[in-house]
Amino acid sequence: MLLQLTAYIYPQAPPSPEKHFDGKTWWEHIKVVADDRMEGRETGSEGLRKAEAYVVEQLTKAGVQPAGTDGFYQPVKFISRRIVEKDCSITLIRNGAVEPLTLGEDAYFNTRVDLTKEEINAPLVFAGYGLKIPEKNYDDLVGLDLKGKVAVILTGFPAGIPSSLAAHYQWAGERWKVFREAGAIGIITIPNPASMDFPWSRSSLNRTHPQMDLADPEFNELAGQKVALTFNPASAGKLLAGSGHTFQELAELAKDQKPLPRFPLQVSLKSRVHVEKQEVTSANVIAKLPGSDPLLKNEFVVLSAHIDHLGIGEPIDGDRIYNGAMDNGSGVALLLDMAASLKREKLRRSILFVFVVAEEKGLLGSKYFAAHPTVDAKSMVADFNVDMFLPIVPLTVLKVKGLAESDLGDQATLAANSFDVRVVADFQPLRNSFIRSDQYNFVRHGIPALNMEISFDPGSSQQKIFKDWLTNHYHAPSDDVSQPIQLSSAALYEEVMRKLLIAVANADARPQWKKDSFFRRYVQ
Ligand SMILES: [Zn+2]
Fold it and tell me: CB within 10 Å: which end of the chain, N or C, has fewer?
């Protein structure tokens, strides 16, 4: 009704711009890569191989060229680590008395770290947010004796620290560098209840699922870390008993991003782990669309999306297949749509389509690709990473991670505004999303990068739709093709991305970091 009335009042409205996407091809691709046959696309699995074969077939059909080391493929080797929980134990020792903890209920081991086989018996120290940020003269470790001890930290960061800077220092490797220097042997992480995407029961459900690391030791950022545990906030009182502090007090401070006290705890941790290791090979998939300018065609605008997901895990409501339709079938489908659409354009720079593996294992495929790119490293001028952009509401607001860091942010704003879409910076900094997807590995190699998600105005009714999606579908088997998705919203997102890619591919100058961006330091 309303639409018709509007049309009547403004009969001279300008014709809508040409549409390149309708959401239908996008959804057809998702229906294939998120099909049960693909078994949740676990890194190294047969299901992922099938999904990658489909992607290669579609890229070939679109007429773009292979740009891997083996046709479209770039093989990557991993070490897979699986915890054997029945042979593991954790207890707290208080004044010589043993307090057993229950794995899964109170805490679980993080096998992204190469956990030690030896038994650990070490005092615990609460180190606040566990951050050292020299740029802001901020140091949670100052004055603490951490030698031979295990640090307990609460995730988050104090107000006054820019979110990208805080995100950077929460990167596991950056964090461990600081604790290793202080002599610590491990970290117990308590998730900040104010920023948990889903309840503890779900994060602990798949704790024995294999974790991975890149096999090549050049990538081992966590060497020397012997213990890594994630601790249930609801059980954190057990760590704090006798310290003069309660977890409730700390959680309230952290929720408001206030400074946290730091102090030795009155308990020691005694733990034993058994981990089974295995070598796994998987692959990134890479394609290029050559540019037309004699000089600029040697530069690449990268469009990346992770293709892996969580595979087959513990059942929820009787379903064991974690299909990953939005995470990140949605990004894979966008890249395929974009390859087909841009093939019909004449672009000055080349476009590189990079489907990375092992994102869910800690951004590993992109870490490998950024260190060993299949084109000249200096020729990559920008990365647009697409991960779970969530067309679950009409697109009116885009949240742009990295908005203020480079002039890609200005280009994104122009592209979005031309479709009457507003742009906002990340207003949920505690979720740490700038370092939580593959763009971050490009950033660490000096390449300006952006990640855009469909968003909402804080306080609006749509906020609840996103919150409910994270609670119920994020990293759950129900992130499948039976959920309601707004195809028109996906299509509009694709239009914005297309316009942005074309603008950057055709600009005279390559994108630049802003003068005051922290990440400028990574330019080689
Ligand atoms: Zn994910």
Answer: N
